[in-house]
Write a structure and sequence with these properties.
Layout (H helix, E strand, L loop, with lengths): L1 E4 L6 E4 L2 E4 L2 E4 L4 H6 L8 E7 L5 E7 L7 E7 L1 E8 L10 E7 L5 E4 L3 E7 L4 E7 L8 E3 L22 H4 L13
Antiparallel strand pairs: 1-2, 2-10, 3-4, 5-12, 6-11, 6-13, 7-10, 7-12, 8-9, 8-11
Length: 184
Amino acid sequence: MLVEHTAIEGVKIVTPKRHGDNRGFFSEVYNRRTWLQAGLEYDFVQDNHSLSAEVGTIRGMHFQTPPFEQAKLVRVSRGRVLDVVVDIRRSSPTFGRHVAVELSAENWRQLLVPAGFAHGFCTLEPNTEFLYKVTNFYSAPNDRGLAFDDPDLGIDWPVAPDRAHLSDKDRKWPRLRDLVDAFA
């Protein structure tokens, strides 16, 4: 397993080993013992899987507030995405900054997203399947989001905001400066 640091402390790119032959490949995408040896202590409690049919589908920017905050380990099993995380921890020196990483079935990268970050992605290929592990269960009352197109964030999405495929809910999230329950 290769662990790479990003420009924001705690956000890491994790690439599991793949062992291939003429039949295909095998990969251990998560092993708690290996993670602990690498200093990554996360207790994942739920796995989620989404399919986005259209290129330019944006899901995000999502997070849950305490006490149901979630760290996430995200990856793509089919297709490609631009995956984006925004630091929403008000006391952080990187508050409001973001990291964007391409994840694909081909590059086999995963992104580790600590609690205190808004997370979202944009599909770059049709029929993209996205998987993620989370450290806390879903809680509807704690479900929040951040406007994906907030100009203060400066995210360079690969699709124009008016051409993005979004849920109605994702179109209505507030800008970062209006976020009342960002992490202290």
